[in-house]
């Protein structure tokens, strides 16, 4: 009799578990359908879009014509908490290439706590086989079901959760750590990799200015050339923010980088370095454009340019920096409200290395 009773209890527990699992999967499917509808209306019906676009281009082997491309869109909602605007991502769509094959990933995010609810991944192997995977998670982040069209999958439930956390981190860095950090404080984005020590002869201010102008000209020429090339190295970020407390704003970042081999004491490392960054922000009655030129070895800021326009006027600044990081010449039509260029430059480099290394 006890065995029969125990069997009934276990059967009831199992049935309850299956019912909870089915209810959760149904909840996920409903949330997924609602997110798709919301995404289809993003930027339409007279409304400004609210999304973040991150694009990365890299050249793995120039001679063999092996390139990498990655494009990710993060859709989000906004509300106010204690008078402060809070952005909440709800869906991530990612396309990327690997070995000349395009792959795709979707992530359904719980906007309340930024946890992964569902992930769909599709890719093609080098042999031409299509691999599809689906992962369903409960409210605690535990996997409750996974489906694959083949047992030879290269993804995992834990790995997809880590990818979701990575993109949520990037999203927070862009929307919180860069755009609103104007008081000189650093974001949580990492600094760039260390470069090998290099002895550089000290220059006079005139020599440094000539060096900066030459490097600036070379960088602008390289940027213009890469805009029309198939093989290029850059990161492009566009944030469309509808805004609750202010008019809609579009912010665009462009990071241009190259690669070199760095000799370190313990190993020989292939290293990316950023040599030029531009930032363009626009909203009603406001337009600003900023350029940062960096030393290719130390990643120190060499030159800063800012053009800032509002309805009542336009301002422009240029700053030149010596080898110790001190500004030795500044030109502009206003001495007031000079932007925090060096701190902004650190924030921008931090964001670049966060995109490239995480």
Describe it for me?
28% of the residues lie in helices and 42% in strands. By secondary structure, it is an alpha+beta fold. Helix 2 (157-178) runs antiparallel to helix 4. The longest helix has 39 residues, at 2-40. The chain is globular. The relative contact order is 0.11.
Brief summary of the model shown:
The protein is an alpha+beta fold and 358 residues long. The protein has four helices and 14 strands.
Strand order of the largest sheet: 7-6-5-4-3-2-1-8-9-10-11-12-13-14
Taken in chain order, the helices and strands follow as: HEEEEEEEHHEEEEEEEH
Helical stretch count?
A: 4
Helix content: 25-40%
Overall 3D shape: globular
Please report which band the strand proportion falls in: under 5%, 5-15%, 15-25%, 25-35%, 35-45% or over 45%: 35-45%
- Low-pLDDT runs of 5+ residues are 8-13, 179-197
Chain-wise SSE layout:
Blueprint: H1 2-40, E1 51-61, E2 66-81, E3 84-98, E4 101-110, E5 115-124, E6 130-137, E7 143-148, H2 157-178, H3 205-226, E8 234-241, E9 249-263, E10 268-283, E11 286-294, E12 301-310, E13 313-321, E14 327-332, H4 341-357
Antiparallel strand pairs: 1-2, 1-8, 2-3, 3-4, 4-5, 5-6, 6-7, 8-9, 9-10, 10-11, 11-12, 12-13, 13-14
